[in-house]
Amino acid sequence: MGKWTHMQAAASEPLHPTRRRELTVWAQKQGHDEATIAATIEAASTALTYKNHLYVATIHPADLWHENWPEMAHLSIRRIDRKPVHDWRHLQQVKADIFGADAEAVELYPAANRVVDTANSYHLFVLLEPGQHFPFGWRTGLRDDGPIESLEQQRPGAGGAA
User: Fold this and answer.
1) How far is CA 118 from each of CA 19, 37, 38, rounded to the nearest angstrom?
2) pLDDT 10s digits, 115-134
3) DSSP-assigned beta bridge partners for residue 57
4) DSSP string spanning the chain?
């Protein structure tokens, strides 16, 4: 694949007509009025955008409906060619390029009635305060660049995206 190119700020792209229709239908189903729908489409069209040779990432305010959670951003990531992703190291590096190596994020696998699945996009929710951690997960990290001896499952490059 070649060397990783860091994410750089980029111009926002206008919404594709199909995506605009999908957003409109979704907002109508949510009971939003025309003004709110127009504002939602405008926000999606002008989101802060980053790109590199593989990915486009946009930042949106996270829709936090629980008052005791810290401030977060919603980071939406997709491949430029729109193919599926799920290379964990790539998503980790996109997050680090945009928010810094010490920012913490989660990818949510929601209940069925909260699933958003309209494109090959991946959604991370990033804590905005540097050094803040979620109250779950490992307390310390562990990396290994070498293969797992008997299975040789780990690929080289755990120190950064490759």
Assistant:
1) 9, 18, 19
2) 888 788 899 999 999 889 99
3) 50, 77
4) -------EEE---PPPHHHHHHHHHHHHHTT--HHHHHHHHHHHHT-EEEE-SSEEEEEEE-----TTSPPEEEEEEEETT------HHHHHHHHHHHH-TT--EEE----GGG---SSSEEEEEEE-STT---SSS-SS-----SPPTTT--PPS-TTS--
Name the residue with tokens 């989660």.
106
How big is the chain by its Cα radius of gyration, in Å? 18
State how far the alpha carbon of 4 is from the alpha carbons of 1, 65, 74, 157, in Å: 9, 36, 23, 11
Average pLDDT, the chain: 84
Report d(CA 129, CA 62) in Å as an integer.
14
Residue pair 143/158 in contact (Cβ under 8 Å)? The answer is yes
pLDDT tens digits, 22-76 = 878 888 888 889 898 888 788 777 889 999 999 999 999 888 888 888 999 999 9
Residue 37's pLDDT is 83
Contacts of 37 (CB under 8 A, 6+ apart): 23, 24, 27, 28
Comparing C-alpha atoms, which of 55, 97, 47, 51 is closest to residue 74? 47
